[in-house]
Write a structure and sequence with these properties.
alpha+beta, six-stranded antiparallel sheet, 6 strands, globular
């Protein structure tokens, strides 16, 4: 199954569903997508450590999302790429409308990039350029 089909399936799975913190918030949702795409669980160690937005904020204060993602991707043998070189199935970090960092998954790379990310009551596709991008080496 190609990256777009796997991402679409994960988008459909959360259609109309509220975020369940620590289970399918933006980071855990992206980790589940990437696990199905690449067989690597970047969410290990994070999953179910919190059950609310307040709990997520506490964990992030302790660990820092950007540092944690960088450590998990490095451990998986992934490389950091310049955002303009993102590939389908890469992990991105964006600045959300709230000013917080959020995880997204690349649906289509190149000049006309599309990314998928978890939002409350579903997931969305957006033409954006993340601040940071990691993907499998090769």
């Amino acid at each position: 199954m190609d990256a777009a089909s796997i991402i679409d399936r994960h988008v459909e799975m959360v259609e109309g569903e509220p975020i369940r913190w620590g289970r399918d918030d933006c980071a855990m949702w992206a980790a589940a997508v990437l696990r199905d795409l690449h067989g690597v669980d970047l969410g290990r160690g994070w999953r179910r450590r919190y059950r609310s937005e307040t709990g997520a904020a506490r964990v992030l204060r302790e660990t820092n999302l950007l540092r944690s993602v960088h450590a998990a991707t490095r451990k998986a043998g992934w490389v950091r790429r310049a955002p303009e070189y993102a590939r389908p199935g890469d992990l991105g970090i964006i600045s959300a409308a709230t000013g917080d960092l959020a995880c997204v998954v690349c649906l289509r790379g190149g000049v006309d990039q599309w990314w998928a990310g978890r939002i409350n009551h579903g997931a969305t596709y957006a033409r954006i350029t993340p601040r940071y991008v990691w993907g499998p080496n090769g």
